[in-house]
Structures are given as C-alpha cells and as structure tokens.
Amino acid sequence: MNYANALKDFSQIFKKPHHQPKYIQTGSLPFLDIYRNNVLANRSANLANTYPTVMQLVGEEFFSAMARVFVENSESHSGNLHHDGESFPDFLNTFPHVSDLPYLSDMAKLDWAIHLAHYSADCNSIAIETLASYTPEQFGKLSLILHPAVAIVKSSAWPIYQILMMHHGASPADLNAGGEQVWVWRDHWQLLSISDALFLESLLNSQNIESAMRATADDEYDAGPVLIQLFSRGLVCQIN
C-alpha cells in the first residue's frame, strides 16, 4: 500500500459523498458520513472566524451556505485550520450569487491579512536608535526586515478601510469614494496614502530604503513618518 495514494483516495470522500476508500475496513464505512460532515462543518465555522467582515456583509445564514460550497470544492493543504481558506477571495470573484457585491473579494483579502497578522509568529524588534550608527550615505542602502504580521492590502476601486471600520462602529462607507490602501499589523490597521503603501510594499519586497522611496514616484516623498511608526511599533526585526 502506498500511503500517499491511500490518503489521496481517502480524501475523495469530501468531493464524492458515496466514495468508498479502498483501504477503509467495511465496519468503518458507516461512519464516513459523520467524519465528512464534521470536517466540513469545522472548516465552514473556521471560515466564518477568518472572514468576519465578509460574513457581516452577506449575513450569517448566507455565509454559512456559501462557505459550505467553498469547502466542498476546495482542499485544505494544512492540518492547521489557521492556514485554511486562503483562496476564498478568489472564490468570491467567481461565485455568481455575490456578483452584486463587487467589493466582497477585496474585503476578503483584508480579512485574510488581519487573520494572518493575528496568528503570525513574533520577532525581536530593533530600536530606532540603531539607525544612529549608520552614515547618511549608508542609510539609503539599508533593507529592513519587517515583522511577519505586517501586510499591505490595496483596492483599486473600493473603500475597503471605510467598509472595515463601518463594521467596527464607524459611519456607513461611501462606496463611491474610490480605492483605499490599508496597513495591517498585529490586531491593528491603518489607512494609508498610495505613496506610503508603495513604500511599505517595497520594503516588504526586500528593497532598500532608497529604492522603496523611488517606488512611490514622488520626488518629494518623506519616508520619515512611516519609518518612525515602524520602529515605534516594534515592526522592524532586522536591518541589513
């Protein structure tokens, strides 16, 4: 028996309710439905915890039905439920029953980033005083390794920050306000200008400070305020 093939065969019970895995004993077959339903229910419930804003936008009952469709048609590639559901934003782009909510996929991307930030590993932070040891010429060549919780989520068309804050007690979002950029870190989020978002994205992509500033396409861009926030929040883990 090839163990990998046996597991692959067994996993078909989630796609084909009447599938009988080759290596399952006859006495265990009646319990496969219980196992299948428990797994699907757990993944669906986890999806609701991972995407709370999406669930609030569509309602709990509708979300539950939509989550069921998703988990029945997608595989979990990790034994850790915190890693399950990464492709849900892409699923929303193709799910016809939410076509009247075109911002839903971008909100799901924001929910996913917040979820990952909450469960990400920690790191020892670097104090801003460390920068004093570098000359002005060296400063621009520095690359900053940021905290694993840091992420930038951008929407070209929708006010994702407004929509998020609306579900945290703020005023209703203006869907005609255009796209927004959000900086996410451990259980926090902040609205960003497009220049600040491009700068932080470049740092996350291992560009040095000088190159990251050029990526903003703003000759007068001042990276100082963002750098101060990065260090004061303990979000710089290493300087190269």
TrEMBL record:
Domain (Putative DNA-binding) ranges: 31-92
Any Pfam family matching the protein: DUF2063
Domain of life: Bacteria
Keywords: DNA-binding
GO molecular function terms noted in the UniProt entry: DNA binding
Name the record gives this protein: DNA-binding domain-containing protein
Taxonomic source organism: Iodobacter arcticus
